[in-house]
């Protein structure tokens, strides 16, 4: 029997065998120590988004496959705590691709475009304990 689809909002560290339908909302390359990896934002049908990291060793395999605004079924990835300093998602976890991660069924599912939701500067300042004097 095929595994059912799960929502991005339910992703946690308790398991690695996930199966989600998502759209690539945003995609960029990150250069660190002269090595480049891929990062993305996935969004699902209910508008929930999550930050995604594709490590250096897997970048070549997924870079041309994952296209902005295309939808996919993504299975078998590693959820990790979202401890990134500059968060692109409010989700408590990020997705890290592994050698077992697969991407399939391009554009067989309909997910509408998500609007960007920027955090107000006042919230950023308050969270970081920054004081501004004039």
Automatic annotation (TrEMBL):
InterPro entries: NA-bd_OB-fold, RFA1B/D_OB_1st. Residues 5-104 form the Replication protein A 70 kDa DNA-binding subunit B/D first OB fold domain. It comes from the Eukaryota. Gene3D superfamilies: Nucleic acid-binding proteins. This is Replication protein A 70 kDa DNA-binding subunit B/D first OB fold domain-containing protein. It comes from Pisum sativum.
């Amino acid at each position: 029997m095929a595994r059912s689809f799960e929502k991005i909002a339910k992703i946690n560290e308790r398991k690695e065998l996930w199966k989600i339908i998502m759209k690539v909302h945003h995609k960029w390359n990150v250069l660190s120590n002269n090595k480049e990896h891929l990062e993305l934002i996935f969004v699902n049908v209910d508008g929930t988004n999550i930050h995604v990291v594709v490590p250096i060793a897997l970048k070549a395999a997924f870079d041309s496959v994952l296209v902005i605004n295309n939808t996919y079924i993504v299975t078998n990835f590693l959820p990790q705590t979202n401890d990134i300093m500059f968060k692109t998602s409010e989700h408590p976890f990020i997705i890290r691709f592994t050698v077992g991660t697969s991407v399939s069924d391009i554009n067989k599912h309909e997910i509408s475009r998500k609007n960007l939701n920027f955090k107000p500067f006042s919230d950023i300042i308050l969270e970081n304990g920054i004081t501004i004097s004039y």
